[in-house]
């Protein structure tokens, strides 16, 4: 098997050279076939991944955005792996790898095992974690802009942007068709979750499972501002099951149409849209996981 490492210098920043040296050393000492690429532009990881068609493991070395690009270029009969070297590594949290250095994670992933996990399609694009629309997608868009202008850490920017946008919730009307059942809602936020985490630790559906064949859907209805301030920490922790302002559902196939274009984010990638077609692919992605992984459910 060939090992292809795609390193995102924009995300890895000053860790880039050390990571590349570690990868080179570990692969060389084990006489592995490997290549290391640096990305130069948005979408470069997708372009690199598309070049490989079989008997290859492609390693995303960066954050969730890098993993998103690799997943969208991954070809049939290839596996992918996640090396959590970014500012936000929400998908990697699902693996429950505890108390490991980045070099240990690289080594244990190289000598790891493959498992099959779910992923989602949103308007023909792959996502691993989540697709959301409304308030939190607008927050993500603001954070991405702020990151270009300030050295503040990402988790702090998310908190600032979340509070700022709560006072301008911008509700929208939406028609959802979930596995053939139609519902109409007035909402400020809809989250379609494959994984548990996004936005640097938000976990609105704490029981989400990347192998259960279902999306967890969280709908936050139009809510007074003071109530939203109360709901925010509950949404962060995934403890809104008993809140009447929040609806939790499950589905494999979802179609959403809104009354006007709204902010949407899919694994951190931002766009505006009025209509989304979302479908789950059950255990259709081969993921290489570290050999000493704590999450035994994946094995």
In short:
Helix content is 29%, strand content 37%. The protein is an alpha+beta fold and 299 residues long.
Give the integer mean of the pLDDT values.
91
How would you spell out the order of helices and strands?
A: EHHEHEHEHHEEEHHEEEHEEE
Instruction: Output the number of helix runs.
Output: 9
* Shape by Cα distribution: globular
For the secondary structure, the number of strands is: 13
Q: What composes the largest sheet? A: 13 strands, mixed
Annotated CATH architecture of the largest domain: Sandwich
The tally of domains stands at: 2
CATH secondary-structure class of the largest domain: Mainly Beta
Distance between the termini: 21 Å
Q: What would the CATH topology of the largest domain be?
A: Tumour Suppressor Smad4
Structural class: alpha+beta
Over all CA atoms, what is the radius of gyration? 19 Å
Binned, the helix content reads 25-40%
Please mark out the parts with pLDDT under 50 across 5 or more consecutive residues, or reply none. Answer: none
Strand proportion? 35-45%
Detailed description of the structure:
- The chain is of the alpha+beta class and 299 residues long.
- The protein folds into two domains: 2-119 and 284-298, Probable inorganic polyphosphate/atp-NAD kinase, domain 1 (Rossmann fold, 3-Layer(aba) Sandwich), CATH 3.40.50.10330; 127-282, Tumour Suppressor Smad4 (Sandwich).
- The chain has nine helices and 13 strands.
- It has helices spanning 9-12, 16-29, 44-50, 64-73, 90-93, 102-110, 135-147, 154-166, 225-237; strands at residues 2-7, 33-38, 56-62, 79-84, 113-122, 125-127, 130-134, 172-178, 181-193, 215-221, 246-251, 253-266, 269-289.
- Strands 1, 2, 3, 4, 5, 6, 7, 8, 9, 10, 11, 12 and 13 form a 13-stranded mixed beta sheet that branches.
- Helix 2 packs parallel to helix 6 (102-110), helix 3 packs parallel to helix 4 and helix 7 packs across helix 8 (154-166).
- The longest helix has 14 residues, at 16-29.
- The chain is globular, with a radius of gyration of 19 Å.
